[in-house]
Amino acid sequence: MTLQSLNELIEKVIDNRGKTPPLSEVPTEYPLIEVNAVRGSSPIPNRSVFSKWVSKDTYGSWFRSGHPQPGDVLTSTVGSIGEFALHDGEGAIAQNIVGLRFDPAKCHPKYAYYLFTNPTNRERVKNLDISSVQPSVKVPHLLSLEFDLPLISDQKAIAHILGTLDDKIELNKKINQTLEDIAKAIFKSWFVDFDPVRAKAEGRPTVLPPEISDLFPEELVDSEIGEIPKGWNVGALSDVADITMGQSPPGDTYNDNGVGLPFYQGSTDFGFRFPSLRKYCSEPKRLADADDVLISVRAPVGDLNRAKDDCCIGRGLASLRAKNSLQTWVFYRCKFLSQQLETFNSEGTVFGSINGKDLKGLPTILPPEVLCKAFDEIGKPMDDAVRNRTLEIEVLTELRDTLLPKLISGELRIPDAEKFLEEAGI
Q1: How would you classify residue 231: left for phi > 0, otherwise alpha for psi between -120 and 50, otherwise beta?
Q2: What is the Cα–Cα distance from 39 to 42, expressed in whole angstroms?
Q3: Domain containing 32: what range?
Q4: Same domain, 250 and 138
Q5: Number of folded domains that form the chain
Q6: What would the pLDDT profile of 52-106 be if each residue is shown by its tens digit?
Q7: Rounded CA gap, 43 and 85, in Å?
Q8: How do residues 168-225 score in pLDDT, each as one tens digit?
Q9: pLDDT cut 90: percent of the chain above it
Q10: Which of 16, 81, 241, 354 lies at 20 to 30 Å from 22 by C-alpha?
Q11: H or E stretch including 313?
């Protein structure tokens, strides 16, 4: 290995003009990559947090040091320092984000990303903090860091091993998102837009199997919540689910060593489908069963997850369990209550919240149970597939996080790491 400073390895530092460029309202143009998009465990920027866009005209002229290119390592210089992402070619960088373009003859770009995300090196970057107000690092200080680098051939091999794991993780995430999008689209068509009913009323085919199409009426009628299919009823959320409001146990019952049940306080614990386990509680007060819908009832109201296992819920959450065991239907019903729940986010003098009475009393349609069951028969296998892929993501992530520091430090030989992947079937 050869000790070299980043300054010797970098071809170019890419930044903007120290402030956010003029923005566009067109979400098809260049997304603005802000600090929150380079925070996390994925190599590429987190697209789910993109909320601003830069027009193509502005993008072409704004950046004084050139545009970020695929392979540039992106990092934040203010706020969440020590966070990195590998630019995939989409997006413009905001202020407080810089791109580091490595000389490929000296340092493979993807290896550079893993070099930075090695816990030891991430901590070295955090120790460059110069501010007492919010964390910040000066680029010259960052470029002065020195690293022992293996041969470029070994860098490529290490990047390939770790990248293979990350690629599989990202593929599973995309499949999970696609499965959820499909289930949401079906639910919206059947239970929000009432497409099959409208098709029948207009004499058009429903494009559904006859046994499902026959479950829909041919007419919409007025109700207290607007038009609904004839024969359907209107009720409250408590008519379709048993609802438990969370309660926070005493602080001295929390622990990190697995005593008691997993404890989730609020939506800050939420992931794509299941919450992240950070704490346990030895004396749980309010419980949720595995597969229950978890809904945030405090700032913001309405975020959703599912309980992966039996758990304890704090006052920031409520759990919902379907009265008729059609848990998938209840989950997607809650996903389409956002407009009703949004009103609670704007109420209150400090932050939004919803109490048990209001949550239980939220108006909802009550379709025939046989139709809800027909949806569950389609949606539940998708939910099960999401769960299985989520478990696989956890295994792959643990394997990557185990291999990464050992490969970067040279503690683990490349052939041995390749054997790990082979034994894992990757």
Answers
A1: left
A2: 8
A3: 2-149
A4: no
A5: 2
A6: 888 777 766 666 556 788 999 999 888 888 889 999 877 788 888 889 999 999 9
A7: 5
A8: 999 999 999 999 999 999 999 999 999 999 999 999 999 999 999 999 999 999 999 9
A9: 69
A10: 81
A11: strand 311-313
| End position of a domain, from candidates 149, 173, 199 | 149
- Single residue among 366, 390, 413 that ends a domain in this structure: 366
Q: Which amino acid is at 152?
A: I
Residue 41 belongs to some domain of the structure: yes
Whether residues 127 and 29 share a domain: the answer is yes
- Taking residues 394-419, report their average pLDDT: 93
Strands, sheet with 287-288, edge to edge from the N-terminal-most edge strand: 254-255, 279-281, 261-264, 311-313, 287-288
Task: Note the residue count of the chain.
Answer: 426
pLDDT recorded at residue 352: 80
Assess contact for 91 and 65: CB atoms under 8 A. Answer: no
> In one letter, which amino acid is 339?
Q
User: Considering the domain boundaries, does residue 405 fall inside one?
Assistant: no
User: Quick one: DSSP state of residue 260?
Assistant: S
290 occurs within a structural domain: yes
pLDDT of residue 349: 46
Contacts of residue 241, defined as CB under 8 A and 6 or more positions apart, other chains included, come to 293, 320, 321, 322, 323, 330
| Cα–Cα distance, 27 to 35 (Å, whole number) | 19
Structural domain contains residue 417 = no
Is this structure's pTM higher than 0.85?
yes
The DSSP code sequence of 331-397 is HHHHHT-HHHHHHHHS-SSSS-B--HHHHHT-EEEE--HHHHHHHHHHHHHHHHHHHHHHHHHHHHH
| CATH number of domain containing 17 | 3.90.220.20
Q: Which helix (H) or strand (E) holds 111?
A: helix 109-117
